[in-house]
Write a structure and sequence with these properties.
Elements (H helix, E strand, L loop, with lengths): L2 H4 L4 H7 L2 E8 L4 E8 L4 E8 L9 E4 L23 E2 L1 E3 L14 E2 L2 E4 L4 E4 L11 E7 L3 E6 L11 E8 L8 E3 L2 E4 L2 E5 L6 E3 L9 E2 L13 E2 L3
Antiparallel strand pairs: 1-12, 2-11, 3-10, 3-12, 4-6, 5-7, 8-9, 8-11, 13-14, 14-15, 15-16, 17-18
The structure holds calcium ion.
The site of calcium ion has 6 residues, from loops.
Length: 231
Amino acid sequence: MKSLLKLLLPLSLVSGLMAEVETFYADAKVGASQGSTVLEAGKGYRIVISGTWSKWADQNVCGGTPEDTVRFPSEDTENGKAYMDPAFIFAYPVKSSFCSDVEHDLPVPSSLLYWNGTDWVAFNPSLNEYRNDHTYEYIVEGIGEALQLRFPDNLLEDNYGQLKIEIFESPSIGVSYYTHNKVKLDFLGVLQASEDGEEWTDLSPQPESPIVISAEEKESNTGSLYRVRRP
Ligand SMILES: [Ca+2]
């Protein structure tokens, strides 16, 4: 396992792997948000979405532990505590439908919606595990349109928070994540299972000391198994 963490790649190669297409922010108060760059049909892209938001007006907490503020506040509106991120609900207030006698096992998956050219479909991270840093990787194939995303909510007026959406060219569409020997590896980090497979430990390098991760050097030419922790 340790060997997964020690290979450092030349910075030029990393830049090549992470060629940025564009970055934009999606506001939870807005129905659909879209980028300004057409993603070429059939070409692979890696999307990194980070941040926190709420689909409820801020109130007293009913379950879970919200964060005091959303990471990227909405403009020109009152913001509040963070209850959700791009892929999970990790807390909920008293006026949400979640607040009942039934205890919810948090975090609860709650994916964004993605326009695939025909329908709005659930947009799930390549490695669909809750992350404390609220940053997730997605792999998509371009459809000849700019990326379009929607928040999973119908009543938009009481929402707040923005998500940061970064789009990169992907060197290897088709491998969304790598699993082997109880190890899960994606663009953002490494998780390892316990002996019984019940618990996952985050072995990712920390944000303050980013390094590049690779499964094996000999597989470097494929590009498919490179996974990089963002600085
Ligand atoms: Ca709402």
